[in-house]
Structures are given as C-alpha cells and as structure tokens.
Amino acid sequence: MTVRVVVADDQPMVRAGLRSLLEREDGVAVVGDARDGEDALTCIRRLEPDVVLMDIRMPVLDGLAATRRLVADGARTRVLVLTTFDLDEYVFDALRAGASGFLLKDATAEELLSAVRTIAAGEAVLAPSVTRRVIEAFGTAPRADPRLADRLAVLSPREVEVLRLLGRGRANAEIARDLVVSDATAKTHVSNVLTKLGLRDRVQAVIFACESGLLRTGEAAAPG
C-alpha cells in the first residue's frame, strides 16, 4: 500500500528536497505540498494524505496551531513534526497538540523514511536526541491533573493496567507477556484503551499516563 504524504514547509528548497527524497522510495508518494499552516490544512482536507510532514515555524499559521486544528477536525492524517529546532517547548507542545512524531531536520534519509512508514502504520516516533527530555518532563510532573485522573474511570481494571504498561514503554508483545495473555488480546486491550480515552497513539498514552498520575515519578519510558 502506498503511503500518501503532504509536505508543509515555508522554504521552497526544503519542500523540493523532501519531495525528491521521499519520491525515490517505493511505496511513498508526495501528493501535495504547502507553504504555511493554513495552506497545509486546505491541502490535507482536499487530499486526505496518510502523513503530513509539518514544519513548526511557518507564516500565517504555525505548525503547532495547524496540528491542533487538524486533530480537532478529526482528520485521519497523522502529523510528523519536522524541524530544525529541538527546544523542549516545541517538543511538548507538538505532542500535546496531537502530533504522532517529532523528528529533527538533520535526521538521515533512512530515519525520515522509517518515521513516515511507522507513523502511517499507526505507531509513533520521537527523535532520539529529544526522547530522554520528553520522558523526564512527562515522568516527573509535580501532581496529577484531576481532570485526567477522572477520565480513568472509563477504563476497566485490566485496561488501567494496560495503560500503565503503555506508559512504561511496553510493546504489545511485552504487555501480553506481563499480563499472561495472547498477543491478539494485548493488541485488543491497547486499542480499547486508546479508543476510550480518545488518544491517537502510544505517545499520547505515555503523556496521559504521566499527567493523570497513573505512573509514579521515574516510571515512564520511551514509546517504542
């Protein structure tokens, strides 16, 4: 199946370079590009790509605001934030906005292509250089957000345990082993947790588990 991609960046040379790189890969097609956040939203609504490469610093509407609006619209397109900046506030804001991944522009072609495929498959990606800070920040929140804690009530006791394991960075196979269930059952539990809490992927699950107070300080791990 071909992964359909839109590239959103305010620099024409960057857009052209990313298009050239992605289109050399079998199974990936760049179906459109955008010069700012508003242009990106218009393009995404018209073309419904699988993934959008979203720059942060763009005119008219920045990439974070565009991501928030995209998620609020319920679009199925998944967002990979691609930027030259690895400042913490950008990482955190992008993840909270609903991005499924964060990659720096100095990533290799192989890393970018892998990230696009991973996000299109419904998983999540964080640049290795920022993963540790994300874990530390979300894993050491001073107190739980009671609004998030209340939302845990929609989960069964088993689903709460699955969320705790997701927050610790466990893959489906590891969750199955820890709970002594089949891989298929673990996958179903994970899907149910994400659906009930309205979370897009494992990155959002890690953030939710930390900020709801479900995890104790230091328990959170990188989503893998």
TrEMBL record:
Key words of the record: DNA-binding, Phosphoprotein, Transcription, Transcription regulation
Domain HTH luxR-type intervals: 148-213
Stretches assigned to the Response regulatory domain: 4-120
Listed SMART domains: HTH_LUXR, REC
Listed GO MF terms: DNA binding
Listed SUPFAM superfamilies: C-terminal effector domain of the bipartite response regulators, CheY-like
Record-listed 4-aspartylphosphate modification sites: D55
Keyword Phosphoprotein attached: yes
Gene Ontology biological process: phosphorelay signal transduction system; regulation of DNA-templated transcription
Protein name: Two component response regulator containing a CheY-like receiver domain and an HTH DNA-binding domain
